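Handout, section 4.2: multi-component inputs.
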Amino acid sequence: MKRTLLASVAASVLLAGPALAETITVGITQNNVGVDSYQTTYEKAFIEAAEADPGVEAVVLDAGGDVARQIGQMQDLIQKEVDVIVIWPTNGQAVVPIVRQAHQKGIPVVVTNSQIADAGQEFIAAFSGPNNIIQGQYSAQMMCDALDGKGQIVQIAGQPGYTTAIERQKGFEDELAKACPDVTILETQPGDWNREKSQRVMENFLTKYDTIDGVYSGDDNMGVGALNAAKAANRADGVIFIGATNFAVGYEAMGRGEYYGSVYQSPVEDAKNALATAKAVVAGEDVPKLNYFDTPKITQDNMKDFDKPVF
Amino acid sequence: MAKADAQAGRSSDRQRLISGENVRRILQTQGILIAFILFLVAFSLSSDRFASFDNVSTVFRQVSIIGTIALGVTIVVIGGNLDLSVGSLLSFTTVLVVDLHDKIGPTGAILVMFAAALAVGAVNGLLVGFARLNSLIVTLGMLSAIQGVTLIYTGGQNVDIVDQEGTWFTFFGRDFLLGIAVPTWIFLVLAVALHIVLTRTTFGRRVFAVGGNPTASAFSGVRRARVVFSTYLISAAATGCAALILGSRVMGSQNNVGQGYELLVLAGVILGGTSLLGGSGSIPKTVIGVLILGFIQNGLLLMGYPYYAQWLVTWVVIILAVWLDVASKRGRLFTTTS
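Output:
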């Protein structure tokens, strides 16, 4: 369906920096700008970072969540003979052939934010983004601390099939089993990154289980949905809510003492890291395959050290 | 509800009031109700929490958003058209009412939101009713267009109501009246109102007429375009009511919050037995259709099935319901003509 038609038209901004001899051209094809605040902020930060850098000329494109359009944009960027392509994959599997094509044409590809499939790893120069496994582990560690190593929790995962959702869940479950085996996960259901859906899932959990000591959500947007449900049922007191990707609503709930903690992932850092990685690749530096940017734990105790997220 | 079905032009059944036929008739007209009761019994036996008052009222509240939209869509479908724009209209109206809440206050926000919803309904109605364009194409296009408008309006940002404790806007999604959640009240009161409109008014009869036999209704002086136009206004207004519930329940909104709702809504309408060809259907049955969807999801979750079981079972239930509906009408499971 073409529901992102207008969004992509609006977002397909072509930016031309000063055309100095030593500038490099970075082409980026993003996943779906405008569909959420994270991606919107990422794009803004990427454009700002590129404009601030006299050595970079950026061609900024957006696939509008459409794999076919992203492949077309990749072909355009290859035709244009940009120096490096940054891709935020719409689908980690489907973009592998076109990534290979770019590689064969001698254009290095940097994958940003979300990984592509294993089959494509040999064709990319580097990956830049958050480490979702680590993020899941951080959340598990916070949960262990908050519950003193004992309790029953439920998990609201992201949309099934999304790498981010799968990796966070894996990191969380593995670390929880290792760090505090006496904290058991009663049940896991997907909240589809949707606050209202998560609220519904949590309502059902509250009906089903008399004792819930903690709730882990794949992002704060869903976590706040779960918090809403628990508050409405008068069962929020004493329950530990932990999320990931700290959202403004999660930050505020933390400030009110209702939400325990989250993982702070800045789209600005994500964008800057991608551009820096792309530049290093073109400059011929020895770039590691995996370039993670730091996503620290944020809790009620240390939240003053962080700006409130813009999304 | 039987009355509504009879109006759909199956009066020939009345001539066969023999006792064996009567059973078949009940199955035929009330099959969905019987299926619903069987579901409830099966789930109650397998989970002791299922039939509790708390759980049942939770499910009613959970289906109220999709249900409220489905009421409006039922009327559009009876009138012989589809409305696929409701999902992204829900996103847009929820974003609008939540965003404007902090800017111009709840009353103004609600008025502007309903005005915007009706404007969208009017465009759908003009194109399908007066310009006689295919409703699938018009409303599918509208689905993209509104999603685009929503994204431009928000710039991709989530919107939230900052002061969540100090506003009466919480009423629509979070309050209770006489022990029953306000969303449930909105859903059921609107259902009763639209049922009366559909079965007891001239307008209601005209909706069945233009959906069932547009040519005949035109010869009887029914102005199809006006009727169709009105059905889209009703659908948009119902979606606006759903946005009130959703915005107030979440006190915030993502700009794709209603994504995919159009298909859930349509599933509820079809499950209720409203014919996609138009001319037959009823509001109470849509209520039951939507409740079946809600109870399936809730029941499977309480029984501890994974989410993909819900998708699978929902699909199986829809196919079975539609098949039984068709089979009971033609008297056999498979058709003999090819």
